[in-house]
């Protein structure tokens, strides 16, 4: 049997490891800044691109796609070559994957703070960057599958199964959720509207967690934990059950993010049922990981790499127990929109993704640079301060979440809300926000310790070289099952068939939930009084999206007594038929805004955006003063309306042609109402008498468009005192 010599590509692994560490520091630093913004809301006062609403998606994208994404590629490129006994299929594709991914991250770091966003959670990037993501991801997939085809190891190890499922599913999710119609180079509207957009988004959002933060990391767990412990995986059979049940069930669970919303009940209930089932395969993976360490627990005591991996797997187990519990309707009724969800997400992100990445880095770097880790003591210090940081982050957020839920739902004996002012809840949980900021600070200190430890380790080592390896080429065998060969053993030597089966497994749930919601009209009953936004309101909505208001304010009143009492009539599916994209939100740092239209005067909104504390004492909302002074660019309004027509919004040709005049008339009316405030009127008169080319009339400023949108919210629904709609559903 001829033995072939070849070289593993270690340089691409090194590049991805460097990027992981760099973007980890950046993403976590932005997260820490955001945590302190809850305590010092005006810390970036007046700087639009450093406002909370614009930085929040930068933080989530940086930690998910830059930090975790680069860690995935580093681990996959290292382990795939060794598991398949082959160099990666194409050096060009490897480099294209690396540089393309870094350019996408840089593009995100530029566009998100500038306000170019679709507002869809974990999918905020605009359409040109979405196309780039698809191209780079396909390059990664071609490289992975090409390597599988030219492998020298016949059977595919369990880690490879998870890598394949990750590639296929993320491709499907990204493409379908990112279907949008461009208006300009950096502006687009989702092709889905309202309820349908919400379902597709959380089908994507939940499964971005499933197939970007979970399945690739399970593959890394199945490779690096046995390597670090020098023990075989506990159970081959359990890994088979774990893999197939996980990828089939996970894809159904997205609707549990939309419980008690305007989503049809049948879709909500499907999401709940499959979410509860998820606990079995998830814990199957955790058990397989932890029991792999049987007989190696003495190593855990002294090896920081294994310490990180044990806590990572434990964090995965905790998060995947809590997830199904949170999907139960009675638990979700308490937790949703609260800081409980923030705690849940960060147990998974910091422990599972963060710690497994740290363990992988500490294991890989000495091997790549042919040296020993500079300091085991510093690595142990990183472990303990990081663990303490997670605890100090998560526990206060659980307390904050419980506090919010109890206060939001509390009634006086006379039937009035015990805490009618939303800010009473906000002020109550400020101490928990302090503890979160301290916990986050400890976690990032640990990250900086890792940076120092790794830099000194690299300096003490030798230059990374491609590693010589040898293995015999595969000989042809029957494509049919041989005697005694199980179905799965046969499948493990058939990469194409395995990829097709994995694709089928993940498509079933998505098709059954999404196709009826989009195709069957009875799922989304229309309401005759609901009309499209006026041109000025549409522009105001785009400003609302640009500033990231959806990150703190929901637009979804659930059918609970406490919410109807506080916010007004609960949300109906037909209200959102012209919303491209939907803006239901997932967190209430501030009150729900679905029924805010007409609740406050135009002057109140003006003053609130200029200085939130002047209208709402104790508010932690930052000021948005640039909206008061910036000229509103209305040049694209006709293109925006025309795009909406393509998406099914019934603007007439006359409305589009007269858009500029319509905006002028509505803006002038708002300014006249603003002048009813003596202080504002005096300010206007002083400004209007000013001489200079830079002067912008108040009717042309961004704040006026935003006020138009806010005053429209919820006003299409007219309800009798009995709660019955005045209009008939068509």
Keywords:
mainly alpha, 29 helices, 730 residues
Description:
The protein has 29 helices and 4 strands. The chain is mainly alpha-helical. The strands form 2 sheets. A two-stranded antiparallel ribbon has the order 1-4. Strands 2-3 form a two-stranded antiparallel sheet. A hairpin with a 2-residue loop joins strand 2 and strand 3. The model has no long low-confidence stretch (mean pLDDT 94). Pfam families: COX1 (PF00115), FixO (PF02433). Pathway: Energy metabolism; oxidative phosphorylation. It is found in: Cell membrane. It is a multi-pass membrane protein.
How would you write the strand order of the largest sheet? 1-4
What structural category characterises the helix and strand content? mainly alpha
Strand content: under 5%
**Count of extended strands:** 4
Count of runs of 4 or more consecutive helical residues? 29
Overall radius of gyration = 27 Å
Q: What's the story with the biggest beta sheet?
A: 2 strands, antiparallel
Q: Ends: how far apart? A: 74 Å
Low-confidence stretches: none
Q: Give helix % range.
A: 55-70%
Mean of pLDDT = 94
Shape: globular
Domain Cytochrome c: 535-714
InterPro entries: Cyt_c-like_dom, Cyt_c-like_dom_sf, Cyt_c_oxase-like_su1_dom, Cyt_c_oxase-like_su1_sf, Cyt_C_Oxase_1, Cyt_c_Oxase_su1_BS, Cyt_c_oxidase_cbb3_su1, Cyt_c_oxidase_monohaem-su/FixO
Family: Belongs to the heme-copper respiratory oxidase family.
EC number: 7.1.1.9
Q: How are the SSEs ordered, and which strands pair?
A:
Blueprint: E1 3-8, H1 10-37, H2 52-84, H3 91-111, H4 127-149, H5 158-177, E2 180-184, E3 187-190, H6 194-212, H7 215-229, H8 236-250, H9 265-277, H10 279-291, H11 297-302, H12 304-326, H13 329-335, H14 339-368, H15 376-408, H16 422-428, H17 430-460, E4 467-472, H18 487-491, H19 495-519, H20 535-546, H21 561-567, H22 602-610, H23 612-615, H24 626-629, H25 637-646, H26 653-657, H27 659-674, H28 678-688, H29 702-712
